[in-house]
Amino acid sequence: MRIVVTVKYVPDINADRRFDGCRVDRDPSVGTLNELDENALEAALRIFDGLPDDEREGSEVVALTMAPAEGDVALRKAFQMGVDRGVRVTDDALAGSDYFGTAAALAAAVRRLEAEAPVDLVITGMAALDGLGSVVPALLAAELGRPALTLAKKVDLDGGTLSITRETDEAAETLTALLPAVLSVADTANTPRMPNFKLIMAARTKQVEAWSAADLGLDASAVGDTGARTEALSAAARPPRPEVELVADKGAGGTALAEYLIRNELV
Amino acid sequence: MTEPTQTQPDANRTVLVLLDPATEVRSSVLELFTLARTLGRVEAVTLEAPTVEVLAQLGAYGVETVHQAELPTSALAPAGGGDARHLPGVVGAALAAAVRHTDADVVLAPASFAAKEAAALAAHALGAGLVIDAASVGTDDDGRLVAGKRVFAGAWDTRCAVTADVAVLTVRANAVVPEPAPAAVATEVEGFAVDLGGAAPLPTLVERTPKVREAGRPTLEEAALVVAGGRGTGGDFGPVEDFADALGAAVGASRDAVFEGWFDRYIGQTGVTIAPRLYVGAGISGAPHHRGGMQASQVIVAVNSDPEAPIFEICDFAVVGDLGDVLPQAAAAIRAHKNGSQEA
């Protein structure tokens, strides 16, 4: 069983996130592993842990990211959770990639891993907390020509059949697919493990493998700014909200609230 | 400066709006029709036959044609059972086929997770440009589609232009106020064939249970007024729900409250993302996760017993107090006001 988990290096949502021109400011002092990818890593490690001993031989969990060199922070965190390998795709030609460029680059990296030995499963988080698009998992599946089981709340793997349940806005669904497949897991799917001392020590010696666009045989005109089908025009911080009107409830707080809503024509 | 240019509708621009399901027209889809009319000629794409009531509503909103996908039987009655026509892979293929069939220039879809995936897969198949969760849509001097987005938990506004021939956008609820067309039109339904052969293999749908919409309350995604409860409710959503009903608001919760099993749907950057006219948070501290789902709301009000609650930093109006005292009193005052207005 070989599982690839895609992870993203993003600004911490607790930090003051900013744009630098039209690009997300990837200030390394606040850069971290996208929190939602921890659910994807946990899902992969649980599948790995559940393998019979004879199947663990030759099995591995690989964390894959597309990022500048600072993105190793995300892979280090993945190592600390227990993944075996970390691959970073880094190339100036990839900067400014849209959803499709991102999916194409990640798919090319999966295919390169596939050239070593079959990749049974690609697992992603439900979204990256910087962009919140939630579409790269489906696009990655389309690029790879594999079925996509997305936004899983519950994951079961029985032999070569992957089964999930999920809640969409419209319905509760149970879906299955044969491996190889692409899976995205919701933040409600599991509780990610905390790194233990042994894993933290082991993570220190692990090396990140860095691949370029050329290593992946990527057509540079199809990725990055050049290949993007949208052009960023501007990014501006919104003005701060006016000072809050704060009322301490001394018995008439509810009335004050109703009056505020009526005054502002919200009732 | 951050808003796209005000647009004159272009009669040569065809705008397809995703209407799925086609058994009712949600207010988010009425907003899409309203927005689409500012861009060009409006047509709808469905995966099933629209009802008579739906057709009348489409006519009122200026939709001239409904393109109804004719799907292969493998999608309608798949081996695993269940009706697979609403799966993003099927909807995405239908949208792409509809664009090719009509030579459309723009596709608008709502901002649900399923519609986002369908939009992305359609754009992938078409080589189109994709914008997810636009808060405003217009055009620039060259006729390119320009979308505004609110990002980083509502703290930044970004704009981008679509540079490909076809633009596919998902649009956030409450981006515009739905308005019928100045004159109603007669709506025609036309079929078009969808071939699922070219797409990635679909998963097997084993079971699908449509959600029952709560009668009498607006849906959280689409509501103009939202009241949400958090850990401070201690598990009793009674005051939150009663206050919401007094206002005619939808009810939501924080992720904590849902994890505790007190409520079923949470507002947050990985849950339901909302941008209503009014958000009232009761007993919600305002963790980054929650703020990411509601900070784009127009007016933000909080009730919290903790004077240091971080949500107060992003509020317009707040009461420091026990929500069990404040909300019932406010609900009574609002009901009295509404009754008074009716009598007057």
From TrEMBL, chain A:
InterPro entries hit by this protein: ETF_a/b_N, ETF_b, ETF_beta_N, Rossmann-like_a/b/a_fold
Start and end residues of each Electron transfer flavoprotein alpha/beta-subunit N-terminal domain: 21-220
Function description: The electron transfer flavoprotein serves as a specific electron acceptor for other dehydrogenases. It transfers the electrons to the main respiratory chain via ETF-ubiquinone oxidoreductase (ETF dehydrogenase).
Cofactor: FAD
Record flagged with keyword Transport: yes
Quaternary structure annotation from Swiss-Prot or TrEMBL: Heterodimer of an alpha and a beta subunit.
Pfam families, A to Z: ETF
UniProt organism field: Isoptericola hypogeus
Keywords of the record: Electron transport, Transport
SUPFAM superfamilies according to UniProt: Adenine nucleotide alpha hydrolases-like
Protein name: Electron transfer flavoprotein subunit beta
Presence of the UniProt keyword Transport in the record: yes
Family: Belongs to the ETF beta-subunit/FixA family.
CDD domains in UniProt: ETF_beta
From TrEMBL, chain B:
InterPro entries named in the record: DHS-like_NAD/FAD-binding_dom, ETF_a/b_N, ETF_a/FixB, ETF_asu_C, Rossmann-like_a/b/a_fold
SUPFAM superfamilies: Adenine nucleotide alpha hydrolases-like, DHS-like NAD/FAD-binding domain
Pfam family, one: ETF
Cofactor needs: FAD
Domain Electron transfer flavoprotein alpha/beta-subunit N-terminal: from-to ranges: 14-214
SMART domains registered for this protein in UniProt: ETF (SM00893)
Source taxon at top rank: Bacteria
Signal peptide boundaries: none
Free-text function comment from the UniProt entry: The electron transfer flavoprotein serves as a specific electron acceptor for other dehydrogenases. It transfers the electrons to the main respiratory chain via ETF-ubiquinone oxidoreductase (ETF dehydrogenase).
Subunit structure: Heterodimer of an alpha and a beta subunit.
Family of this protein: Belongs to the ETF alpha-subunit/FixB family.
Name listed for the protein in its UniProt record: Electron transfer flavoprotein subunit alpha/FixB family protein
Organism ancestry: Bacteria, Bacillati, Actinomycetota, Actinomycetes, Micrococcales
